[in-house]
Design goal:
Mean pLDDT: 76
Distance between the termini: 39 Å
Largest sheet: 2 strands, antiparallel
Helix content: 55-70%
Structural class: mainly alpha
Strand content: under 5%
């Protein structure tokens, strides 16, 4: 089997591999932070950060007026105000996959390995966070998605790619808090 064929089937096998490592209590509902920490290994987030830096280097120069406003809401992982958890990170990954990484301007820049890595992170978060109630920051996350979908969609999607490091760093911080 050639490397190209293996990469084509990799996204299909990742969910099966992840399910094999998931404990039954992590699927019973709610947020299992210890499960998320164990399923998302350091090497996954480290590789995602490295590949995101490579993608950001390939992006066209940002226009000065668009750099003033941040798209991502201001969150932190260890403060009492604006605290973010695994549920919010799952919602952010869903927004990124739906509104940013699906844009043609962004998709052209992503390697198949990076797409598979993003899918793996998103799928892992969906497995370990199964809460029927929305996040308390649901409105802020939806507002961010609306900003991305407004005029100049491609430009805002590229800006969101530049800010994706924040999401990966929040995942990394939560991993180390729960270990």
């Amino acid at each position: 089997m050639t490397m190209k064929m293996k990469m084509k089937f990799l996204p299909l096998f990742l969910p099966l591999m992840l399910l094999a490592g998931v404990r039954s209590d992590s699927l019973s509902g709610g947020v299992r932070s210890d499960s998320c920490s164990h399923l998302l290994h350091d090497d996954i987030t480290r590789e995602a950060l490295r590949q995101t830096a490579d993608v950001v280097r390939m992006l066209p120069k940002e226009e000065k007026y668009s750099g003033r406003h941040r798209l991502l809401p201001r969150f932190c992982t260890n403060c009492s105000q604006r605290l973010i958890g695994w549920l919010e990170l799952r919602d952010l990954m869903d927004v990124y996959q739906r509104s940013v990484f699906s844009r043609l301007a962004v998709r052209k820049l992503l390697s198949p390995e990076y797409k598979a890595l993003l899918y793996r992170i998103q799928h892992t978060l969906q497995l370990c966070v199964s809460s029927p109630t929305p996040s308390k920051w649901y409105e802020a996350i939806k507002k961010m998605e609306k900003k991305i979908k407004k005029k100049r969609r491609d430009e805002r999607a590229l800006k969101a790619v530049r800010e994706f490091n924040f999401v990966l760093n929040w995942i990394n911080e939560l991993q180390h808090q729960n270990m």
